[in-house]
Amino acid sequence: MVKGQASEARTRLLTTATRLFYTEGIHAVGIDRIVAEAKVTRATLYRHFPGKDDLIVYYLQEADQAIRGQLDAIVAKGAPAPDTLRAIAANITEGIRSPGFRGCAFLNAASEYPDPAHPVHQAVLAHRHWFAGVITDVLAHLGNARAEVAARRFVLLRDGAMATGCLTDPAPVCETFLEGVEDLLRLHVTSRGNG
């Protein structure tokens, strides 16, 4: 097989797996279906990914990289911390309002792989640790010693919005999330220096 063809096959595998894992659930989608829809052989799949778990972890790592790119671009603008946090929140609501939104890929994966030692669960935890760190850093620029606590609140608000945004009309979910972020900012700024 020509090197370009292998790369093309790998791309098809990842694109197919990403679509199916996200829209239907990881356990619901078997290797045979991924191979058939990607129009590759099982041997091609295993040449690129030793097993389904490896493919799942790569799917999550790709999702992680996409989100990192979005947040890095927001943070790189150098806006004041409250505006940066608002922009991150707005980015989250854009995702919730997007067609085909089915919740957070990471929360969905964690629900299917609850064992903390499993590589899929570990990929979820790595993403969440990074995300919480970004939010903590943004909030720390407000000068409050309790930035980590405020960041945990933001992550909980985000998790709730992501979990409910696919169950009902996303507009009120997004509105409530954004109001919660404003409440968090007011509380964080008001309590600055009191923590």
What gross morphology would you assign? Answer: elongated
Domain module tally: 2
CATH topology of the largest domain: Tetracycline Repressor, domain 2
SS content category: mainly alpha
Give Rg in angstroms.
19 Å
Query: Which ranges are low-confidence, i.e. pLDDT below 50, for 5 or more consecutive residues?
Result: 1-6
Proper CATH architecture of the largest domain: Orthogonal Bundle
> How many E-type strands?
0
Would you state the CATH class of the largest domain? Mainly Alpha
CATH superfamily of the largest domain: Tetracycline Repressor, domain 2
Order of helices and strands: HHHHHHHHH
- The chain-level mean pLDDT equals 92
Distance N to C terminus: 62 Å
- The helix content, as a percent range, equals over 70%
- How much β-strand is present in the residues? under 5%
Instruction: Note the main sheet.
Output: none
Number of helices: 9
Domain HTH tetR-type: 7-67
Organism: Amycolatopsis keratiniphila
Protein name: TetR family transcriptional regulator
DNA-binding region: 30-49
